[in-house]
Design goal:
10 helices; mainly alpha; 254 residues
C-alpha cells in the first residue's frame, strides 16, 4: 500500500507541472482503465486466492501450476481484446459522457489509451502477487513493488517531458507490466509450465486486431456518434468471442 500511494503522489506532482487539465486527464484515464481491470483482474485474483492457498497447503504442485496457468490464459484472453476495443471505441464516448471540450477530450483519450496498454499487466499482477501470497511469501511481491516504484518515477519523469500527461500514464503501464512479468518469471521458475500460454496469446492478439478493425469500421456508419461507438464496441466484442471461447470455458470452470 505504501508503494502504491507513491504512484498517485508522484503522478499528481508531475502532472501539476504540465499543461492545464493534465491531472484531470490522468485521473479519468486511470478510472476508465480500472473498470475492466477490476472486473477481470481483481475479481479473478480475489476469488482464486483461497483456492490457491488450499492447493498449496495440500502440496499439490501440479494442480497449483495448472490453476495459475489457466488464470493467466483467461486474463490474456479477456484483457488484450478489451484494451484494443476500448482504445478504438472510446473517442466519441469521452466527450459525450464527461462533457469535455475537444482539447480536454483528446488529452483524456490519449491518457486512457496509455493506461489501457497496461490493462494486461495490471490484471496479471493481481493473480501473480496472490500466487505468492498463497505460498505465504509476501516478501517477493514487496521487493518488486519497491523496484516498480523506482522504475515508475524515473520513467514518468523522462516520459512526461516528452509526451506530457500520456507519458506519465505510459510510465505506469511500463512499471506495472514489468513487475507482473518479473513475478510470473519467478513463479515459472518455481513451477515450470506456468507460462505456457503461447496459443492463447496469439489468439488474443488476432482477436484484438479483428475486433478493433470491425469496431472502427462500424463507427464510420452514418449513425449518431455515441450510438455508432456503442454499436462498434458491441460488434467488435461479438467478433472476439469465437477467438477466446476456450478461455471463456476455462473461466467458468475456474
Amino acid at each position: 500500500m505504501f508503494f502504491l500511494q507513491i504512484f498517485f503522489i508522484a503522478r499528481d506532482n508531475l502532472a501539476s507541472r504540465l499543461g492545464e487539465g493534465s491531472v484531470t486527464a490522468l485521473n479519468y484515464g486511470w478510472f476508465i482503465m480500472q473498470v475492466p481491470e477490476t472486473l477481470i483482474g481483481s475479481a479473478l485474483a480475489i476469488a482464486l486466492l483461497p483456492t490457491l492457498s488450499e492447493i498449496f497447503a495440500r502440496r499439490d504442485r501440479e494442480l497449483f501450476r495448472q490453476t495459475v496457468n489457466r488464470a493467466i490464459k483467461v486474463i490474456l484472453a479477456l484483457t488484450i481484446p478489451s484494451a484494443a476495443l476500448l482504445a478504438v471505441g472510446l473517442e466519441p464516448v469521452i466527450p459525450a459522457v464527461f462533457g469535455f471540450d475537444a482539447q480536454g477530450s483528446t488529452l483524456v483519450l490519449w491518457a486512457t489509451r496509455a493506461y489501457l496498454l497496461g490493462l494486461m499487466g495490471h490484471s496479471l499482477l493481481e493473480t501473480a502477487a496472490r500466487s505468492f501470497y498463497a505460498q505465504q511469501d509476501a516478501r517477493t511481491p514487496l521487493y518488486l513493488a519497491a523496484l516498480n516504484a523506482g522504475v515508475y518515477i524515473v520513467a514518468a519523469i523522462a516520459l512526461s517531458g516528452w509526451l506530457g500527461a500520456p507519458g506519465i500514464a505510459l510510465a505506469n503501464t511500463t512499471a506495472f507490466t514489468l513487475e507482473a512479468l518479473l513475478l510470473l518469471w519467478i513463479l515459472n521458475r518455481r513451477f515450470p509450465g506456468v507460462l505456457r500460454v503461447r496459443a492463447t496469446l496469439l489468439r488474443a492478439l488476432l482477436a484484438s486486431l479483428a475486433g478493433a478493425a470491425l469496431t472502427a469500421a462500424v463507427m464510420q456508419l452514418p449513425l449518431p456518434t455515441l450510438l455508432s461507438a456503442l454499436a462498434g464496441l458491441a460488434a467488435g466484442g461479438l467478433l472476439v468471442l469465437p477467438f477466446i471461447w476456450p478461455e471463456i470455458k476455462i473461466l467458468i470452470k475456474l
